[in-house]
Specification:
Blueprint: E1 6-10, H1 26-38, E2 42-45, H2 57-67, E3 72-75, H3 85-98, E4 103-108, H4 117-122, E5 130-134, E6 139-144, E7 157-160, H5 165-174, E8 177-180, H6 185-201, E9 211-219, H7 223-238, H8 242-245, E10 251-254, H9 256-268, E11 273-278, H10 283-298
Parallel strand pairs: 1-2, 1-11, 2-3, 3-4, 4-7, 7-8, 8-9, 9-10, 9-11
Antiparallel strand pairs: 5-6
Helix pairs in contact: 1-10, 2-3, 5-6, 6-9, 9-10
């Protein structure tokens, strides 16, 4: 089995809102502690305001920082465009301080019609401590936060992109990591080759780059049960037929051996990180089973 590979778990910051009020916040905070105890490398939360409402991102990051000590805490992925760059910089630095330097900023940067690559990072002051910027949407002069994140030279930025050259170019030129949910290992391998090509043109060595597959999972001793439960969960969550969803992102539903085989396929294609998102009502129970049947077996 190829490796080494690290694993993280997405927390249900949207799922708890489907429960009767008040939302069961321990399903998020307590699960974060359980993920840490189980030996995973990271915990992750999504980001959305209207399209898929969930707990607000930076407030949740602060709570997670207070309830954990070791695991990295990441966004998968943050919709940075919804936030003013200066306020975003303040929020990111604050979250990294509260987490004692454990923050990973996973961001989505769009597909087409975006400004040039340099502007996207310049507007957020990356990597400069003092920024003057004049653009179409934002203008500010000699702005300085007055404090820095714990991690230097800054919080690692993992850029999300599927098989879209503009996004893969951002990963290759600027990313401290890459997050994707392309639906097959073969597509992943093609994208990874593109990232390496873009990086080479920029004079970067990305051989050690974290390459994360955001993988939706339901694993059960009976693979048929896993597929049925996973399909029902996803169709209710997205209100779309599963056949369409399975063409949009990785759906790893099956027995432990079946799920492990797909993970191994991505690793052989170049992935070195898995962000697991459970398509199941019983998130905590699924975490325990997946830890025993997937994480432990993969670590052998």
């Amino acid at each position: 089995m190829a490796g080494p590979v690290k694993f993280g778990v997405l927390l249900p910051t949207r799922g708890i809102l489907f429960a009767p009020p008040p939302p069961p916040v321990e399903d998020v905070l307590g699960m974060a502690e359980a993920v840490e105890r189980a030996g995973y490398d990271s915990i992750w939360i999504g980001d959305s305001v209207i399209a898929k409402p969930r707990l607000e991102t930076f407030g949740t990051l602060g709570a997670l920082a207070a309830r954990t000590r070791r695991v990295k805490i990441g966004t998968s992925v943050l919709l940075a465009v919804l936030r003013h760059p200066v306020l975003l910089a303040q929020a990111v630095a604050s979250a990294d301080i509260l987490a004692s330097g454990r923050l990973i900023l996973g961001i989505g940067v769009g597909r087409v019609g975006a400004p040039n690559l340099e502007q996207e990072f310049e507007v957020c002051g990356i990597p400069h401590p003092r920024v003057t910027y004049t653009g179409r949407y934002y203008q500010y002069r000699d702005v300085e936060l007055g404090f820095n994140p714990v991690q230097r030279p800054g919080v690692p930025i993992w850029i999300s992109s599927n098989d879209v050259d503009t996004g893969l170019e951002r990963v290759g030129r600027y990313g401290d990591g890459w997050i994707t949910n392309v639906i097959t290992p073969e597509i992943f391998e093609e994208c990874w080759h593109k990232v390496q090509g873009f990086a080479a043109k920029a004079g970067r060595d990305v051989r050690g780059l974290p390459r994360a597959v955001y993988m939706t999972m339901n694993v059960n001793p009976d693979g048929g049960v896993a597929r049925t439960e996973g399909r029902e969960f996803l169709e209710k969550y997205y209100k779309k037929p599963f056949e369409r969803l399975s063409r949009e992102f990785v759906c790893n539903l099956g027995s432990p051996d079946e799920c492990l085989k797909l993970i191994e396929g991505y690793v052989q294609a170049g992935a070195n990180y898995m962000i697991l998102r459970f398509a199941a009502k019983d998130q905590r129970g699924h975490l325990e089973f997946c830890t025993r049947e997937i994480l432990a077996r993969f670590a052998r």
